[in-house]
Design goal:
Length: 370
């Protein structure tokens, strides 16, 4: 893409040497500026975000990132949502029930308000040109750079594979291709994912330096840091699909009540919000507060000395009321599988068009367009 047609806000920041390295403090400082730019001119931004189809999305996903996707879409930001089916294989030997999980992810996004007329939902495997970008991108990073990525180290430590695969090792470059194929210039991430995005920026910068011939083929995407609260699972650890401790968006009212009833609390009867010393109770208070649009302290004050049973009733009622319209939309979409498949087919077509254009540009820059 010619630099004269690139959005002024993000590109100006990316060319500033002080923002070339996405440290946490720099990303936090940049965040407020980005939010102002989004409100002023959302059309200058393209967001790439997504999930691996490894199970049902849950409340941690919703309050962590999903509702922010809808917010950005509704503000007028162009949204690309990748269902990263190939990346399922980074930490497991086989992709179990892949078709079912993909359809569940599409249903969840439709139910929360992602509009396929304004946003693009697509699967990784349906975009061949995206994956062809992997080879030139891999040539731009060293083994040492891949080896010291802290996120990859953590993912390797928790891998489900009998032996770590090469796909796991190149995971950050895979993600770089996901971002750069559609020329995304904004990526919502948590602080723990900043190293991934920093490598994407490095790849974009090195490609431009090596092949750009004075112009920028790729923009260096900005991180939009999430201020999402950390919701604990029902066992008191981080809410996770793989740990079986989550409250799925697709859960019905009765299942939600059962899961909340089994959530861990503590022996102190008086309910207070104190994340440091009472993490499980505080997480339940936070969940109720998010659903009720109140503060955790206000919810705690209402419950007082009524104990854990009253806390769980409050959480159950708040969650079920909050999710009721989402569940209703999900049920409606689930009954129209033709629309579901058309959404994915049309999203795949748009993503392929973007990837084909980018790959053609890359081949021309590398003098391999023949």
């Amino acid at each position: 893409m010619n630099t004269t047609h690139q959005p002024p806000g993000p590109d100006a920041a990316a060319s500033d040497p002080s923002t070339d390295t996405l440290g946490t403090s720099a990303a936090q400082a940049r965040n407020a500026v980005l939010e102002e730019l989004i409100l002023k001119d959302p059309g200058q931004f393209r967001v790439l975000t997504g999930d691996r189809p490894t199970g049902r999305l849950h409340l941690g996903h919703y309050f962590g990132t999903l509702h922010n996707r809808v917010r950005l879409q509704d503000l007028g930001v162009e949204l690309f949502v990748i269902i990263a089916d190939y990346q399922v294989l980074t930490d497991r030997d086989v992709a179990d029930d892949l078709t079912g999980h993909v359809e569940e992810l599409v249903l969840d996004h439709l139910a929360i308000g992602v509009d396929p007329a304004r946003s693009t939902i697509f699967t990784h495997s349906a975009v061949p040109a995206l994956n062809q970008l992997m080879l030139p991108f891999l040539s731009l990073v060293s083994v040492a750079e891949l080896n010291r990525n802290p996120t990859v180290k953590d993912e390797i430590a928790h891998s489900r594979q009998s032996a770590v695969s090469g796909l796991m090792f190149t995971y950050p470059v895979h993600q770089a291709a996901d971002i750069l194929f559609c020329k995304a210039n904004l990526v919502p991430v948590g602080q723990d994912q900043l190293p991934h995005l920093e490598l994407t920026r490095t790849i974009a910068r090195r490609f431009n330096d090596r092949y750009g011939n004075g112009s920028a083929v790729f923009r260096q995407p900005d991180a939009l840091l999430s201020n999402a609260p950390l919701l604990l699972g029902t066992d008191g650890t981080k809410m996770s699909k793989s740990r079986g401790n989550a409250i799925p968006l697709a859960a019905g009212a009765d299942e939600t009540a059962r899961l909340v009833k089994g959530a861990r609390t503590d022996s102190e009867r008086h309910i207070t919000y104190d994340p440091a010393t009472r993490p499980e109770v505080s997480s339940l208070l936070l969940l109720a507060a998010l659903c009720l649009d109140r503060t955790p302290q206000q919810v705690a004050a209402d419950i007082g000395s009524a104990g854990a049973a009253a806390l769980k009733r409050t959480v159950t009622e708040a969650v079920n009321e909050y999710l009721a319209p989402i569940r209703a939309r999900r049920t409606e979409y689930a009954q129209d599988r033709t629309f579901l498949r058309r959404t994915l087919r049309e999203g795949n077509e748009r993503a392929r068009a973007a990837a084909d254009a980018t790959l053609a540009e890359v081949r021309a820059a590398m003098n391999s367009h023949y």
